[in-house]
Please model this.
Amino acid sequence: MRNMQTPLLAKTKTATALLCMLGVIGSAHAQFAATIIPTAPSETTVPEPIPSPSSTPAPARTQGAAPVRPAPAPVRPAANRVAPAPAAAPSPATGARAEPTAVDSIIVVVNNDVITRQEVADRLRTIEQRMAAQNVPVPPRSQLVRQLVERMIVERAQTQMAKESGIVVDDAMLDRAMQRIAEQNKISMAALRTQLEKDGIVYASFREDIRREILSQRLREREVDNKITVTESEVDNYLAAESNAGAAHQEIDIAQILIRVPENASPEQLAQRRERAEDVLRQLRTGADFAKTAAAYSDGADALTGGDLGWRPADRLPQLFVDATASLQDGQVSAIVKSGNGFHILKLVGRRAADNTQATAPAVQQTHARHILIKVTQVVTAAEARRKLTELKERLDNGANFEELAKLYSNDLSAAKGGDLGWVYPGDTVPEFERAMDQLKPGEVSQPVESPFGFHLIQVVERKTDDASRERTRAAARQAIRERKIEEANEDWLRQIRDRAYVEYRNDE
Model:
């Protein structure tokens, strides 16, 4: 439950910003999410067949590496869906019948799912419109289509993985997420719907995009965020470096082009990707536009927004990025930088002094809390989770011990500690949890509370006031290190998802 809070929504009049500011989408993911909102259908040229990249087959795994997902059973639908010819009398002269007309076709098979030509066309139209609105130069259509299909492959594989893991976003949870968007933007649901339609966005499609993003975020939290650890020695080193360099008080806007290297890549694959990165760098140094080049070549999730990572505190960026851009002036491009995920080319968009309010933070109230979490899965429905917690609440009201019940029934890592979450600062938990917790008195137990993680019983143990003490300074440092690690681990996780997916390109006309 800790450290899952996302920024409050600022009032906006664009549907893109609404999605980016949804409380369950992280900033890096929101940039990619902004490229996937479909708009109302219109007449669109269906893209040409997608050339199968030479790097499509996943490299051979070494002993001990995760196994490659076996190819699923062949997808049964024909590559082309055809509309039957309208009934008509045959020509008296020839008796000829009208030829069938293809209305859609499969472009890519991803595990046991497919991506169709019409899906790509719809998304392509949306992306081109958005890039034009954001003044991002649009690369040649063949390059843009190839980039888009790669994004859709990863997206489809993530959705399948989430469902296989039992992560479910039902209509009730989706309704509450939509309501939260409207409330935090201080508009009604009717006004939200009107604004979306005014921007050419189909409301039903917007809802499904939100559902997909919640699925993806909850999967990432389980597969990446919850596995990140920060040691006390890392915190000590961070604080020492901060006091010496002062880097934490600076914000940097960086754009990147990532040439991703497959997991367990061979020397030949490494050389091929390095050559590709050098070719991109040559284009940039001979005057090519960075944003347009990123949209055409980058394998990063931010490619279709020109590769821009946005303004971030220096301590929230990978140290590799900070070091590579340290000597650059605004607008300059770095040399090729090698990381565990591939080859990066970085552009320094700008620097500015951070608003350093941490050192003068006013006294704040801390809450020592614990909880019992029942997650909603394919096996446990929302109604069953709520009913189970209602039964546990009755037992607690009749004298049962909270810690013992948490150890027996809670579905998260805090169960081993009797559900103890430790001392929680404002903003450390998701809004639903924090609102319910703030209404409790010490010793009081809440009714079942729903959040994106499931259903909770919350108990407040005690409260105290803290004045930006050494403990809070270390907590802020720990969070900065954690965010940096999550950024790096997420890139590696996305690479693994893509490499392990069974992908079959179909170029049949």
